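Annotators were shown the component list below and the corresponding predicted structure, then asked to write short factual statements about the assembly.
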Amino acid sequence: MVNVDGALVAKSLILVAKKVEQNKDHLCELDGEVGDGDHGVSMTIGMRAVSRAAKDLPADCTPSEALQSAADAYADEVGATIGPLYEAAFAAAAQAANGKKNLNEIADWASIYQAMADAIQQVGKAQLGDKTLLDAFFPAVEHIKGLAKKGGTLEAALLSTAERALKAAKDTRNLVPQKGRASRLGDRAKGYQDAGATSLAVVLKGFADGVSKRKS
Amino acid sequence: MVNVDGALVAKSLILVAKKVEQNKDHLCELDGEVGDGDHGVSMTIGMRAVSRAAKDLPADCTPSEALQSAADAYADEVGATIGPLYEAAFAAAAQAANGKKNLNEIADWASIYQAMADAIQQVGKAQLGDKTLLDAFFPAVEHIKGLAKKGGTLEAALLSTAERALKAAKDTRNLVPQKGRASRLGDRAKGYQDAGATSLAVVLKGFADGVSKRKS
Amino acid sequence: MKKLINDPFDVVEEMVEGFLAANDQIIKRVGKRSIARANSPIAGKVGIVVGGGSGHLPAFAGYVGKGMADGAAFGNIFASPPAKPVIEATLAVDSGAGVMYTYGNYQGDCINFDKAQDKCREMGIKVETVVLNDDVLSAPKAQAHKRRGIGGLFLVWHVAGAKAEQLASLDEVVAVTAKANANTRTVGVGLTSCTVPANGAPTFFLPDNEIEIGLGIHGEPGMKRVKVRPIDSIIDELMDAILADLDYKGTDVALLVNGLGGTPAEELYVVYRRVKQICEANKIKIKFKHVGNQVTALEMQGTSVSLLRLDTEMHDLIKNTTVDTCMYKKV
Amino acid sequence: MKKLINDPFDVVEEMVEGFLAANDQIIKRVGKRSIARANSPIAGKVGIVVGGGSGHLPAFAGYVGKGMADGAAFGNIFASPPAKPVIEATLAVDSGAGVMYTYGNYQGDCINFDKAQDKCREMGIKVETVVLNDDVLSAPKAQAHKRRGIGGLFLVWHVAGAKAEQLASLDEVVAVTAKANANTRTVGVGLTSCTVPANGAPTFFLPDNEIEIGLGIHGEPGMKRVKVRPIDSIIDELMDAILADLDYKGTDVALLVNGLGGTPAEELYVVYRRVKQICEANKIKIKFKHVGNQVTALEMQGTSVSLLRLDTEMHDLIKNTTVDTCMYKKV
Ligand SMILES: Nc1ncnc2c1ncn2[C@@H]1O[C@H](COP(=O)(O)OP(=O)(O)O)[C@@H](O)[C@H]1O
Ligand SMILES: Nc1ncnc2c1ncn2[C@@H]1O[C@H](COP(=O)(O)OP(=O)(O)O)[C@@H](O)[C@H]1O
Ligand SMILES: [Mg+2]
Ligand SMILES: [Mg+2]
Ligand SMILES: [Mg+2]
Ligand SMILES: [Mg+2]
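Structure shown to annotators:
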């Protein structure tokens, strides 16, 4: 079993950043169908800053410190809608991880993901079904909460949670957006997968791979 | 044998205008290779004005009056390089036709074409080989002067003169332009057929068809 | 993608650097992504802070200077700035008379500016906000609060800036800005999309025979896609939408025919010609007219038409104020 | 082709109509294709008449107004006006102090303006001409008289207009205009071509990874085609060409980073940033700087950089003159 200490959380953040950047063009394309085509760019800019901050962390940082550095990086660099959402999410994650030397339990991550999703909802005021990243995140949170009760390895739990998020992201296709610029298109935005939900799935996959120390 | 009176000259001018407009896009394309892509447009604007003026002429106008109306139409509407050139050309044609009730002899047209080419040279100061419309016009003038000596029908003479102009226009491909904006490209402009030479051939074809009363 | 840029991720940084250098007589830098008038804070004057995503020049930074805005925050391309540069601009322009934020109605801007407002109020600065929502076609009238802000921003800020220049109180500046916004309507049409540099491909694809009615200023799709047709009939449709939304008949207006960035000025004058004909037919008197690129979307081709219904106060404010901002001057 | 137009053959007519209506405080119509300042002729003032093909706004008509030109003639798109509108403008602006024609060096313009000059002189009007040829890359230095006029026109007219505004004599206005021209150099780069409306297709095709160095303002091909690369290295090459052609080291300059019509302002500021670095490295002091669309080619994308080497006279002329033309204002 891996020991998910602050250093590994930091490494995971760097991996998340890499994955997001690899998906930049795809995320922009999705956003371009109904929005302004910049989602992949905003996420890349934010995660590049997160990555830089993670690399600057001391080796003995706590998980909470690592997550808070991500929040701070987002705060200054990104703006847009997604900036405050991820800033709040990472800050809430840091809060949820506070006092912990490591995040080795599925329950740790369940509470972190829950805190992140809640924070995003608090800032963005979106409801389930509004066709936002929450439509990927909330199902993922429910999923990992179930796994925390059931038990199993952390690696497997994070991976299947990321998969759950991706499936949910794909399901946003049928939703009519209620928030952000896509909402102005109404039914015209139906049929397109939500960009933010898709990037959220990429982020969760990044954490899963980072924690299980796998490469891709 | 047709009687080329003022009315038929007017009709020919209308036909020339129609032919020029039919060739608009092609002429623009040629000009666009080395110039600013507007030659077909300038010629169309000019010949539309010529056509309008020709339609307004009294039925009993003289050939000279018809040609002068074309000069006046060009003067006010076109500008560009081509405007003053054709204005001068039509005015010189009117001058050459002055006092004549009809233009039934090959020699009439030989002197008209000669006067037109000379006027263009006087205004534009281009030499043979400078890759301008004169490189189509001068060979055509030489050709019709030869025919005037040899004899034959006017229709056949004008037609073969237009053909001579077209061949000469095609031969401009190998020239390096010395006048106008294409001249700034130097050798880069080699290989492209000169737009003005091409439209000159269209104009001469229009006269030939107009006089022989053929449709196209 | 072909653009006059270096690394696409450096565009905003390098653009800001060039913008500052080119306008150093008018503005100063007050943070990495924030500027203020060189002589800020101006004693007794309400500070007007504008901002939003980059890619809309002259909006927003281009309007910092005498007669319009006092400070601005730059976001990334088409992305609202974070709260930080807004706060920096606020601190730089606050003379004690208070600060007004005014920007187009986009979720990202609202979230980030509100955050800045909260923080600045905590610091004891009086901050008020007027969010602008002139884009008629972006939501039905019953949901006008959801409409986004586009070209009309320029007209509203003309009024707001003039009022603040007179050293009016924060309440007065807010009131006249809200009034100007309530009397401003815009409709737009897009011919092409545009390319976010770090994206590298156009945001969407419009076939060569289709245009988007109701297009915004981010290259995002508009309200409906229609076939290309003569501009007069398009303008007729746009003006119908404006005139149906607010009663302009017989009133005085300030008018903007706005270019979206990639459209030649010649075409904007063809548009103005038709707009003026329609105004005349509706007995609308055009008191101030502007034809040009004021609120753009990178190299997008298209136009928007904005009308601000004037009362005497707004009319005189515009009339009597010289404007000398980075990118817009009124002698 | 997608444009905000009706019949492509009506574009110039409708554009002129809109232009006149939008600028009726500044100009009046004096012919079908000619305009003059509303208060022309101005007693004792040399009248400056500019003009050329349409498609270059603000050039040329956009510069009619206080501090720049007195009259202008509109040609068709990219086609010099005939002599007639030039004559109309001349008659409208001549106060008896004489008239100066000043325009870019294109064969069509030279022929038509010369014709107008001849006719006006026959009528007893004093007319002189200064043809502008700032485009370094359009001919080698030994054949500088063959060079065409592009973005630098704007800088030269700034000086010329200021001198005429001071009621200087025709000889003096001509002299300072010629001096400004002799001290102005421009180089340009094009990313895309443009579409003459009545043509309907782009003048030429540039692949998505190629640009044209030395491009003019008619969408015509430039001097050489190169692969896309970072703008800094392109600007370095352009500035090398300028600095090799005229000695700017240690001098004061007025500077223009010009947009060709379809390029976002953001990119022009990225260009300005680099130009400024190069000027600093060469101890060139930028006294006046302009970043924007001044001499355009419809919706062409690209930029040109112009430097005018100032002496005290030209410096003070620019500095002390307010400009209030149709499309350019200097407070
Ligand atoms: N209120 C909201 N709450 C949660 N997520 C949201 C909200 N509004 C938008 N989003 C998410 O943000 C994504 C768009 O982000 P992005 O393109 O970066 O921002 P912008 O719309 O400002 O350009 C959407 O796909 C959606 O998932
Ligand atoms: N000095 C000249 N004398 C004769 N013909 C000329 C001269 N200069 C240019 N031309 C002709 O004019 C043509 C270009 O005409 P056009 O495109 O209408 O004018 P512009 O170059 O002003 O756009 C050239 O192809 C050439 O044949
Ligand atoms: Mg977006
Ligand atoms: Mg041409
Ligand atoms: Mg955005
Ligand atoms: Mg031309």
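Statements collected:
1. The first helix of chain C runs from residue 11 to 22.
2. The helical segments of chain C are 11-22, 83-93, 107-122, 152-165, 170-182, 231-245, 265-281, 312-319.
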